[in-house]
Design a protein that fits this description.
4-stranded parallel sheet; elongated; 11 helices; alpha/beta; 7-stranded mixed sheet
């Protein structure tokens, strides 16, 4: 049986994502509204083990909802993957009176949250990742901002590609998940979208499409390439050698992690943060907050981690038809 929670800790772990600050704000203010104290843990699990713990009140999170990144900073922590590190983390929570913890991050962060829950610290995890690669939820904090950032960059690249009549390969983030590439590829009208879940590495197909488009009078070409495939510079060189068409590769990179979050990321992140606190106040632990079928809901962390996720086939098929 989970213990009653009086003091709630909050940390951000792994890669940062726009909307994390909105989540922190919601956690702090919902906890205070429910009569609980709040402590911020700096630099994720690494900061927990180093006891970088501060008191938070309503004013501590004033004017942060529109800011990208995370005011609590974030880091990865190899020590926390060990049993000794996890036990140390639980003891530090008890030392500082933290009997409930909100963890904002990806699946690696969820693993740490599950371990702390098993050691008696009531824990709720929130999906903070731009990759949209957490299977239990249709929304992850930061994804909407990331795809809008990538889309705007691709729109700008199309302008210059059209001016120079060249082919542009745009590499977007997403680790081994192709959601960013698929969404912003459709949104920007890309002529080709390469995602890890479906790409067969048949470059001849890409070359034939480029040549066919040229024969029809298309003077420029945009290929959105997912990070998990990579080798954008090499692909650009091979395309130029095979077609004679000037080809450039652009890796958008970490600007997709930054920037002021969109309205959706601010609102959904806020509701998720509030729900995490409500679950802790209800005495629940070892939970992940998700969004499914239009509802904010929660799952057992182990159940969430065991779920698998794939690209929507109909959406992918549509992307192919629309690009031709």
């Amino acid at each position: 049986m989970a213990n009653k929670v009086n003091t709630i800790g909050v940390l951000t772990s792994g890669g940062d994502s726009p909307g994390m600050n909105a989540t922190i704000r919601a956690v702090v203010r919902t906890a205070i509204a429910n009569g609980r104290k709040v402590k911020g843990i700096l630099r994720g699990y690494s900061g927990l083990l180093a006891e970088e713990i501060i008191d938070l009140d309503s004013m501590s999170v004033s004017d942060i909802i529109s800011r990208g990144g995370t005011i609590l900073y974030t880091a990865r922590c190899a020590e926390f993957r060990t049993v000794a590190g996890q036990k140390k983390g639980a003891e530090i929570c008890r030392k500082h009176g933290i009997d409930g913890l909100v963890v904002i991050g990806g699946d690696g962060s969820f693993q740490g949250a599950r371990k702390l829950a098993g050691l008696g610290i009531n824990t709720v995890a929130l999906p903070g990742t731009i990759d949209l690669d957490i299977a239990c939820t249709e929304y992850t904090i930061g994804f909407d901002t990331a795809i809008n950032t990538a889309m705007e960059a691709i729109d700008k690249l199309r302008d210059t590609s059209a001016s120079h009549e060249r082919c542009s390969i745009v590499e977007v983030m997403g680790r081994n998940a192709g959601y960013i590439a698929l969404y912003c590829g459709i949104a920007s009208g890309a002529e080709d979208i390469l995602i890890t879940e479906r790409y067969d590495h048949n470059e001849e197909t890409i070359l034939n499409i480029i040549k066919a488009k040229r024969s029809l009078g298309k003077t420029h070409h945009i290929i959105v390439n997912a990070e998990g495939i990579g080798d954008s510079q090499g692909l650009a060189k091979r395309i130029e050698e095979a077609t004679g068409i000037e080809t450039r590769a652009t890796i958008i990179g970490h600007i997709q992690r930054g920037g002021s979050p969109t309205c959706k990321d601010r609102v959904y992140a806020s509701i998720m943060g509030a729900k995490a606190v409500d679950l802790l106040c209800e005495g629940k632990s070892n939970r992940v907050v998700g969004y499914r079928n239009g509802q904010f809901t929660d799952f057992d962390i182990q159940e969430a981690l065991s779920m698998t996720k794939d690209i929507d086939q109909y959406m992918y098929d549509c992307s192919k038809k629309l690009s031709r």
